[in-house]
Design a protein that fits this description.
The chain has 226 residues and is mainly α. The chain has 2 domains: 1-32; 33-224, Penicillin binding protein transpeptidase fold (Orthogonal Bundle). 60% of the residues lie in helices and 3% in strands. The chain contains 10 helices and 3 strands. Strands 1-3-2 form a 3-stranded mixed sheet. The radius of gyration is 19 Å and the shape is globular.
Length: 226
């Protein structure tokens, strides 16, 4: 029993240490940009490069954060890291159809990209949720969307809005048109399969839906306004 207690004590100390490091990094990343993410490192052997050029939110066309919210997380300005309404809807769908769909918010995606591994699974979700709550507590919404737009994967070895805008449209992120921003948001569910510069019929249609949804959201986009 003594050995078991020691192992449990050691596990508790390791767990507390990990929590402390994550919280410290969340505080640091409130002001300092993350140099790299686990996903970037995992993809590096295959991609061979990390193309990324971090910029401030003010250096990104306003249409892009609006498009991303309209596409990925309509209630971004209302929830506190986790959209419990979306979670409830996902559970209802699972009970009715036996298929579990995602209910990740932008904040949860930031938590995953900064600290965790890609893919699904209940374990990752269980770790992701408290990190997202901590991020929402310690960061303003504009900082959350800014970090998201600077670390999101937009293609093979391409990360962040600035690098993606340069690769796909040969212009800086601040010069993106509303249509280009919507196309970039439309490919985010699978950026290694789809290209905003050569959109399929599905992606072109999805971009149109995103543009229409921006107008419908209206004041719900207020938290990301400059």
């Amino acid at each position: 029993m003594t050995a078991v207690r020691r192992l449990l004590r050691l596990a508790g100390r390791i767990g507390a240490g990990i929590v402390g490091v994550v919280l410290a990094l969340i505080v640091i990343y409130r002001w300092a940009g993350p140099p790299v993410t686990p996903l970037m490192l995992l993809r590096l052997p295959e991609a061979g490069t990390i193309r990324r050029d971090p910029v401030t939110l003010d250096e990104i066309a306003a249409a892009l954060p609006r498009s991303v919210v309209a596409s990925e997380d309509n209630r971004f300005c209302l929830h506190h890291g986790i959209d419990w309404d979306a979670v409830a809807e996902a559970i209802d769908d699972y009970e009715e159809e036996g298929r579990l769909r995602g209910a990740s918010t932008i904040t949860m995606q930031v938590a995953r990209n900064l600290f965790l591994w890609p893919g699904g699974g209940f374990l990752r979700k269980a770790v992701e949720a408290p990190i997202a709550l901590a991020i929402d507590l310690l960061w303003p919404k504009r900082r959350i969307i800014e970090v998201y737009l600077n670390i999101a994967e937009w293609g093979e070895g391409i990360y962040g809005a600035e690098a993606a805008a340069q690769v796909y449209f040969r212009k800086p992120a601040r010069a993106l048109s509303g249509r280009e921003a919507a196309l970039m948001a439309a490919v985010l569910p699978n950026p290694r399969r789809w290209s905003p510069a050569s959109p399929s019929r599905y992606i072109a249609g999805r971009a149109g839906v995103i543009q229409g949804r921006i107008g419908q959201l209206g004041p719900l986009l207020g938290c990301i306004a400059g």
